[in-house]
Amino acid sequence: MAIEIKKLKLSEIKLNPDNPRQIKDAQLEKLVKSLQEFPEMKAIREIVVDENMVILGGNMRYRAMKKLGEKTADVKIVTGLTDEQKREFIIKDNSAFGEWDMDMLSGWDDL
């Protein structure tokens, strides 16, 4: 497996047609607003693609960035994964294994 980080045109990146994760319009709008309020997130969390530029992680961020009119994105290109490993990454990248500590979060401002 090899990993390379590059800035690519969004037009070079392909949505994953097999992505089992969906986002409703209202949730997409919240993500768009979140990226507007904290644009640094676009660089902190790259979109992850395979060698064919198909998104493995970040389909929703990609859609939000397109909606914002962005032209480029920081992308992590991962090569050498099997199809099974790609599917496993897609599932595990979108899984929430932990729980929020609501007491700890109560002191945070509304994000």
Q: Could you characterize the architecture of this molecule?
A:
The structure is a single chain. This protein is α+β, with helices and mostly antiparallel strands. It is built from 5 helices and 4 strands. It has helices spanning 25-37, 41-44, 59-67, 83-93, 102-105, and strands at residues 2-9, 47-49, 55-57, 72-79. It has a 4-stranded mixed sheet. α1 (25-37) packs across α3. The longest helix has 13 residues, at 25-37. The radius of gyration is 15 Å and the shape is globular. The termini are far apart. 14% of the residues are buried. The model has no long low-confidence stretch (mean pLDDT 91).
Averaged pLDDT, please?
A: 91
Amount of beta strand: 15-25%
Radius of gyration: 15 Å
Helix coverage percent of residues?
25-40%
Poorly predicted residue ranges = none
Number of strands: 4
Give the termini separation: 36 Å
Instruction: Give the H and E element order.
Output: EHHEEHEHH
Number of helices: 5
Described by the principal axes of the CA atoms, the overall outline is: globular
Structural class by secondary-structure content? alpha+beta
